[in-house]
Amino acid sequence: MAAHPQLPAPLRADAPTLARRLGISVAAVELSRDCEIIDLHLDTFIPPRLWGYSVHGRHRGGPLGRRFFGHVDLPRLQEGGLSGAMWSITTNPFRTPSSRWRTFQRNVRRLRTMTERSQGAMAITRTMSEYRAAQARGAHAVLPVIQGANAIEAAPEGVRSVPDNFIVRMTLVHLTNSVFGPTSSPHHLLQRNKHLSSRGAELVEQLNEQRVFVDLAHIHPTAFWDAVAVHDASQPLLSTHTGVDGVKRHWRNLDDRQLKAIADTGGTVGVIFSEHFLRTWRGPRDADMVIDHMAHIIATIGEDHVSVGSDFDGAIIPPPDLAGGDHYPVLVEKMLTRGWSEQRIRKILALNFLRCFEALRP
Predict the structure, then answer these.
(1) C-alpha distances in Å from residue 299, one per residue of 118, 247, 264, 310, 349
(2) pTM for the complete prediction?
(3) Tens digits of per-residue pLDDT, 233-273?
């Protein structure tokens, strides 16, 4: 099995202790620690930038408990068994294009510094071989990604201007419209044309050229299909943090046709932990809401195309039993309760994404 990031023995709860704290079985904790776990979307780089939150020390949540921020830190993600995650660099869309580009470059340096200060517990990871090397050292793999391509609008050569092939994936848009196309959020009402722009199409082609994952989270449905049409179908598409319309209709969620389009490229869909996008009127009020959305994806496109994409620290409210980075074993407990096989669980927690990662960036 792959090595996992490890806390010193006195700081990392043993399986029975963690199981009691989370209210789950020891078997679920042990299986989660034996699996690789990859989260396709963390926004935990936001709190350090906004108010100096330290990712290296243990926290008990944010100022409002599990609401909005304070979900993840290095000790908790180690305790929860998180092998790696896509760490999002999000840029204020209301800055000027040149300011966004300068801010992005500064944030790249800050992400590198944050990782270096972990004293080897975290490692910047841009390829599958780098991921395996990080795992062999017991380091948490930090996959750097962009949330909202407007960060690079003023980059002289687009994504090619990002040095060292640093970015692993990019959402074409975020919560606002941009020169690349419209968002799925209500902000799209301010834009008459719902199609991907010519610059958006060029961006997809650039991402394909650089072998950067095209992430279709947040994009308007019309522009979604434009992006699919332009995209190199031999490269796996992602939607890294989303719910599905088949369980709850919502502007943030994907319908079945969109799921199938991603699966047709061999890609995967990360299910978000946000109650707002997942919870139905008569549905579960705990982590089972995440499992319901995963189950619909499995029923629609198969177990090879579903992953975890929490959006922790992205101003979300997660279910009460998924309150932070040490709670990933709760998902395993829910999967075991549904009778899901160990192989299916391993696929969802990491193997589906790692298959995509190896195909794109060996």
Answers:
(1) 40, 12, 15, 21, 17
(2) 0.94
(3) 999 999 999 999 999 999 999 999 999 999 999 999 999 99
pLDDT at 2 over 90: no
φ, ψ of residue 110 to 5 degrees: the values are -70, -35
First to last CA, the chain: 19
Residue 3 carries which DSSP code?
Answer: -
Residues 6+ apart with CB under 8 A from 139: 5, 118, 120, 121, 122, 123
Choices 3.50.30.10, 3.20.20.140, 3.90.76.10, 3.30.420.40: CATH for 15-360:
3.20.20.140
Helix runs in the chain, H state only: 15-22, 26-34, 46-51, 74-79, 97-116, 128-136, 198-210, 221-230, 256-264, 275-278, 288-301, 328-337, 342-346, 352-360
- 99-115 residue pLDDT tens: 999 999 999 999 999 99
DSSP structure string for 156-200: TTGGGGSGGG--SEEES--SS-BTTB-BSSGGGGG-S--SPPHHH
Among 78, 84, 81, which Cα is nearest to 131's? Answer: 84
